[in-house]
Write a structure and sequence with these properties.
The chain is an alpha+beta fold. The chain has helices at about 5-15, 25-30, 35-45, 75-90, 95-110, 115-125, 140-155, 225-235, 250-255, 290-300, 310-325, and strands at about 50-55, 60-65, 130, 160-165, 170-180, 185-190, 195-200, 205-210, 240-245, 260-265, 270, 280-285, 305. Helix content is about 40%, strand content about 25%. Strands 3, 4, 5, 6, 7 and 8 form a 6-stranded mixed β-sheet that branches. Strands 11-10-12-9-13 form a 5-stranded antiparallel β-sheet. Strands 1-2 form a two-stranded antiparallel ribbon. It is elongated, with a radius of gyration of 27 Å. The chain starts with a helix and ends with a helix. The relative contact order is 0.07.
């Protein structure tokens, strides 16, 4: 970056990163002398950027708080992170004024993105789906997220390096069908080409995603959200629970949603549209059992606990406590 204008912009980016920067540090980062740094600072002041001088042993320059926001400079990853954060934030419980501000801010950032970067962002938006409760999402690696989004958009296979929850590492070829934000994690669902099975992977456990040559045909009617929720409900946890509950699918789902339990009737997935009450088999996996008795009590439908016996003991203990409380005068 040999041109003075480029160095002035680089100085602004350094100052925007926060804190006080010494003249020596700025000179070293920009590859110029101290007096040249002072001249660049004056250029920023002439442009209306509120740079203040801090005196003393640890003095230097910093962006001072002002009445208007100084010009912001983002690299590609930062611009996408800000823009995607604004878009995702619309799902939060915002006031109308906050929602409008989020939309106008996103539109401003989107408008100044370079064509290639804007295309990557648009592919990301088209590839992501949300559950009803996305929660406070962890931030995945931007390069991984963008690579997977592009592969979803253009139906391209990707090679991923994945670490499972036991810490085992593997390299897989994935045909990604969609990206889903659920609870506080990001997931990608697709076909694991190595074993020809549909799988779901957490993005924060993917160390690298590299697009491969070729393409694939995604299955018709595939719902990434439903697949992720069903996969999480069937994951291996410490406790495997089997219940029979008399009620409708709607009644049961209010307390045991798709991401928690699998509902079956006569060996097949229960019809969510059927209004009649009947006995349904409920399978779920759980790290703990202490939350289930209260859910069954709130459900207030006849039920049978097939396994485990520990859950039966917990339900009886809850019933005893409620009885004792009710008998107090």
């Amino acid at each position: 970056m040999s041109r003075p204008t480029g160095r002035v912009l680089a100085l602004l980016e350094l100052l925007q990163s926060g804190g006080t920067r010494t003249v020596a540090e700025l000179a070293d980062r920009l590859g110029v002398e101290g007096r040249t740094v002072r001249r660049y600072v004056q250029h920023l002041l002439d442009l209306g950027v509120p740079v203040e001088s801090v005196r003393g042993r640890y003095g230097g320059y910093r962006i001072s708080p002002g009445y208007r926001l100084p010009t912001l400079m983002f690299n590609d990853d930062e611009a996408l992170a800000v823009l995607f954060g604004l878009i995702t934030g619309r799902r939060a419980e915002l006031t109308q004024a906050q929602r409008t501000a989020s939309e106008t801010a996103a539109a401003k950032v989107r408008r100044v993105l370079p064509v290639e970067l804007a295309g990557r962002f648009d592919a990301l938006l088209r590839s992501v789906a949300y559950t009803d409760r996305p929660g406070a999402l962890t931030a995945p690696d931007t390069a991984v997220l963008l690579a997977l989004a592009d592969a979803v958009r253009h139906c391209r296979p990707v090679s991923i390096r994945y670490t499972n929850r036991e810490g085992r590492r593997s390299e897989r070829v994935l045909h990604p069908y969609g990206i889903v934000a659920h609870a506080n994690h990001w997931y990608v669902t697709g076909l694991d080409a190595g074993n020809d099975q549909e799988r779901t992977f957490r993005l924060d456990r993917i160390a690298d995603a590299r697009t491969l040559p070729g393409s694939f045909e995604p299955p018709e009617g595939h719902d990434p959200v439903e697949r992720v929720l069903s996969g999480l409900a069937g994951a291996e946890y410490q406790h495997e629970v089997t219940l029979r509950i008399h009620g409708t699918v709607g009644q049961i789902r209010r307390y045991l949603p798709v991401g928690t339990a699998v509902l079956e009737e006569n060996g097949a997935e229960a019809d969510a549209g059927a209004a009649a009450e009947r006995w349904l088999r409920v399978d779920l996996r759980a790290k703990r059992l202490d939350w289930l008795p209260s859910q069954l009590a709130a459900l207030d439908r006849p039920f049978v606990i097939e396994r485990p016996d520990e859950l039966r003991d917990l339900v009886i203990a809850l019933a005893d406590r409620l009885t004792a409380h009710a008998q107090r005068t």
